Amino acid sequence: MEFYPDRDYVRTRYVADPSAAFGAEVEGELVGSNFAANWGSVGVFGPLTIRPDYWDRGIAKRLLEPTMEIFEKWGTKHAGLFTFAHSPKHIGLYQKFGFWPRFLTAVMSMDLRPRNV
Fold first, then answer.
1. Is residue 1 part of a domain?
2. Which end of the chain is more exposed for a tag (fewer CB within 10 A), N or C?
């Protein structure tokens, strides 16, 4: 939440195409989500979220399955995502679905302080 704290991933993605919003429930409680977007021949997904107390239970894999199915339905020619490039866990998950690192973009920041001129 420290990066771009006023982002509104869920509402804007759901409004864009509710059929491309996927949720994972356990005993009626939402524990994960994923959103896909169709930009012509390009498909992207994310954020893929899993509640931390449900990590390592295969939920992310289960959310990616319908995501890949909708890409196929849309005729997606090129699919992509944003993830934590430093995380072997994340990269390993996406490689199971045919995604391989291509462009690693560093997101950098700095504190802005007034300069004494």
1. no
2. C
